[in-house]
Amino acid sequence: MKTTGALLWEPGTNSGWSVEEIEIDPPERREVMVKLAASGICHSDQHLDDGVIPLPWAPVLGGHEGAGVVTEVGPEVHDLEVGDHVVLSFLPSCGKCRMCVSGRSNMCELGAGVLAGVAPDGTHRVHARDKGVGCMSFLGTFAPYVCAPVDAVVKIDEDIPLDKAALIGCGVPTGWGSSVYGADMQLGDTVVVVGIGGVGINAVQGARHKGAKNIIAIDPVPFKQQKAREFGATHSVSNYDQAAELVQQMTNGQGADRVILTVGVMHGDLLEPAQAMTRRGGVIVMTSAAPVLQRDVQIDLFTFAMSGKRLQGTLYGSTNSRNDIPLLCELYRTGRLELDGLITRTYRLEDINQAFADMQKGLNLRGVIMYD
Ligand SMILES: NC(=O)c1ccc[n+]([C@@H]2O[C@H](COP(=O)([O-])OP(=O)(O)OC[C@H]3O[C@@H](n4cnc5c(N)ncnc54)[C@H](O)[C@@H]3O)[C@@H](O)[C@H]2O)c1
Ligand SMILES: [Zn+2]
Ligand SMILES: [Zn+2]
């Protein structure tokens, strides 16, 4: 089918998104076509444009946070039907590999291919200007239709509004899971969340779920500080020094139990202040993407080892999509997870560069592209 998509022809050069005609092939074996209701604007797509995540191929159709309705099923699709409401998961889960069967489907072997620029079978499903187009995360939600592998498609109940459900494809589980699973949070913890974007605000929600006693949000943008308090932070401040002082007072000098890093771009110098405010035996969770070639980190290694701290990386908030996407829908339905308030502004696909500019300025918890 012919439709419109937002592409990068020169990833890594800050050239912005080109909204133009694309052609999407019908679904092949174990694939479905999904008509999207909405796509979230996640910082990871910005990283394709600014080169934090370099791509050795082009063009790329961006977008990896979407939800919609199945309109067509390819051969050998037994578990989805036309009309099903689905969330697209930015990481696929095959359900068979060692990681999947041991409850770590966020690290499914298929995930290794999400930035390879081709569908799982090594071919292209999207074309533009007579070239094969690679899709972000096998998806490419910056177009009204997505031809997706079934391993990245999770069926949800029809009463969940699809524009809200779109955010459950990346930002919500990544942030919420960073607290609930990655940080292994405990009732009564004192928690610091650094960076309140679409991911960090959900780390705040996850900390609330786990019964954290104190939740301190750090973000330089006053709007983000205010939103963090609305979503359950007990305190919000603009920098590490202010947070360290609060932690000191709240914990009688012991330090925070958990510090979760969800800033837009991770740099080595953000790590030592996080470890310095973490208590003995505490956990520092790193969720943010760093520039891929970044190697420089200054850290007080003696203190790190001798105080038994843990530095925990987390992909997709260490969630299992087939368990956690329906769970997050249920938490939303029963009023225990806020999704509506995550969407600060909506955009048309044509205005996608404005949406990214607004994200960079800190104007949105999440910007969302709405389709017809
Ligand atoms: N690990 C994963 O699986 C995964 C999944 C999705 C996104 N990510 C990454 O998570 C990060 C956050 O994504 P997002 O969509 O929430 O981004 P975002 O741009 O919506 O939010 C980032 C926030 O960090 C704040 N910030 C920047 N520098 C800061 C600092 N020094 N101290 C405190 N706050 C600071 C910004 O003001 C902004 O509010 C990105 O790096 C993204 O690529 C990782
Ligand atoms: Zn994302
Ligand atoms: Zn797998």
Automatic annotation (TrEMBL):
Keywords: Metal-binding, NAD, Oxidoreductase, Zinc
Domain (Enoyl reductase (ER)) ranges: 12-369
Any single GO CC term annotated in Swiss-Prot or TrEMBL for this entry: cytosol
Pfam families: ADH_N, ADH_zinc_N
PROSITE patterns recorded: ADH_ZINC
Family: Belongs to the zinc-containing alcohol dehydrogenase family.
The organism of origin for this protein: Pseudonocardia kunmingensis
Molecular functions per Gene Ontology: S-(hydroxymethyl)glutathione dehydrogenase [NAD(P)+] activity; zinc ion binding
InterPro entries membership: ADH-like_C, ADH-like_N, ADH_Zn_actinomycetes, ADH_Zn_CS, ER, GroES-like_sf, NAD(P)-bd_dom_sf
Protein name, per record: Alcohol dehydrogenase/S-(Hydroxymethyl)glutathione dehydrogenase/alcohol dehydrogenase
Cofactor(s) demanded: Zn(2+)
GO biological process: one example: formaldehyde catabolic process
The UniProt record lists the keyword NAD: yes
